[in-house]
């Protein structure tokens, strides 16, 4: 049958998989009723809506957009993409979550509960928009039966845990170095050209993107402080410069005397390399 799509044009909709003719006729009547009521999404599948929704999100961090696109391409469209938007139910959403929790991902690894929760969050966010536009009455992703991710508890790399890891390969989900281990690492990379970055990461807690985005204009060695003003992140095969992750991430970080000396040596090494490279 023909119904109106999101662009207002008439389009033919084919829908199968019904148990008998009576069930198919009932679905046809429901579709005709939705079209008659002016639901612009009557002939729109979830896959079509997700593509339109993502394209309309102009202000998104590149990493956020990449995450949404991955969830849509790998999980949401293959499982639910052909269902008409106005026919999507909470039962369909719970079925998706059950599949995600029980089957390996396209990479062959089982999805973690935290990943399943993030995929559901993408779907719920995408379905809030048609609810606001009154294309569907309720968001079928609300109230879904979600797994409960368990946040791993950090432990210290004690001698016993280190020995067990070396013998069996077993390691904690999150483990932190001791002071001695951190000192050994910094000693081992003392001649590396990125030693200043390793030092700041270890002792001043800057994120990877913040370290990559740090400029000399953001560093005041006289005042012994640096300002986190931007970050450089990798998204869709490109390095993108943007603001820090959150408003709280824009901060001034105090530098101790040894960190100032490390950065002075780092800058001297950069200047020497620049002179050696010349026009290159």
Question: What do you see in this structure?
Answer:
49% of the residues lie in helices and 11% in strands. The protein is mainly alpha-helical and 280 residues long. The chain has 3 domains: 43 residues, no CATH class; 107 residues, DNA polymerase, domain 1 (Orthogonal Bundle), CATH 1.10.150; 85 residues, Intergrase catalytic core (hpI Integrase, Chain A). The N and C termini lie far apart (65 Å). About 2% of the residues have low confidence.
Features:
DNA polymerase, domain 1
Task: Please specify the SSE layout and strand pairing.
Blueprint: E1 2-4, E2 10-12, H1 21-36, H2 46-56, H3 62-80, H4 90-102, H5 113-132, E3 155-156, H6 159-168, E4 175-176, H7 179-188, H8 195-204, H9 208-213, E5 219-220, E6 225-228, E7 231-235, E8 238-242, E9 251-254, H10 257-277
Parallel strand pairs: 3-4
Antiparallel strand pairs: 1-2, 5-6, 6-9, 7-8
Helix pairs in contact: 2-3, 3-4, 3-5, 8-10
Task: Give a summary of the structure in a few sentences.
With 280 residues, the protein is mainly α. The chain folds into 3 domains: 1-43, no CATH class; 45-151, DNA polymerase, domain 1 (Orthogonal Bundle); 189-273, hpI Integrase, Chain A, CATH 1.10.443.10. It has helices at residues 21-36, 46-56, 62-80, 90-102, 113-132, 159-168, 179-188, 195-204, 208-213, 257-277; strands at 2-4, 10-12, 155-156, 175-176, 219-220, 225-228, 231-235, 238-242, 251-254.
């Amino acid at each position: 049958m023909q119904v109106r799509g999101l662009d207002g044009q008439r389009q033919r909709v084919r829908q199968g998989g019904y148990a008998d003719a009576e069930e198919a006729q009932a679905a046809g009547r429901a579709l005709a009723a939705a079209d008659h009521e002016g639901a612009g999404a009557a002939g729109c599948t979830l896959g079509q809506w997700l593509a339109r929704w993502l394209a309309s999100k102009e202000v998104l961090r590149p990493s956020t957009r990449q995450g949404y696109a991955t969830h849509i391409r790998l999980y949401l469209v293959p499982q639910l993409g052909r269902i008409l938007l106005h026919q999507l139910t909470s039962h369909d959403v719970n079925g998706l979550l059950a599949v995600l929790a029980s089957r390996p991902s396209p990479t062959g690894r089982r999805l973690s509960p935290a990943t399943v929760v993030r995929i559901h969050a993408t779907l719920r966010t995408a379905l809030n928009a048609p609810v606001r536009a009154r294309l569907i009455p309720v968001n079928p992703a609300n109230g879904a039966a979600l797994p409960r991710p368990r946040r791993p508890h950090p432990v210290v790399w004690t001698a016993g845990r280190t020995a067990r890891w070396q013998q069996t390969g077993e390691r904690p989900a999150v483990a932190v170095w001791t002071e001695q281990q951190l000192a050994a690492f910094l000693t081992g990379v003392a001649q590396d050209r990125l030693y200043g970055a390793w030092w700041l990461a270890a002792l001043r807690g800057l994120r990877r993107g913040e370290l990559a985005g740090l400029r000399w204009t953001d560093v005041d060695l006289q005042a012994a402080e640096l300002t986190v003003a931007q970050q450089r992140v990798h998204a869709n095969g490109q390095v993108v410069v943007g603001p820090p992750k959150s408003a709280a991430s824009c901060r001034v970080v105090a530098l101790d005397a040894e960190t100032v000396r490390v950065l002075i040596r780092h800058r001297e090494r950069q200047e020497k390399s620049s002179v050696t490279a010349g026009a290159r």
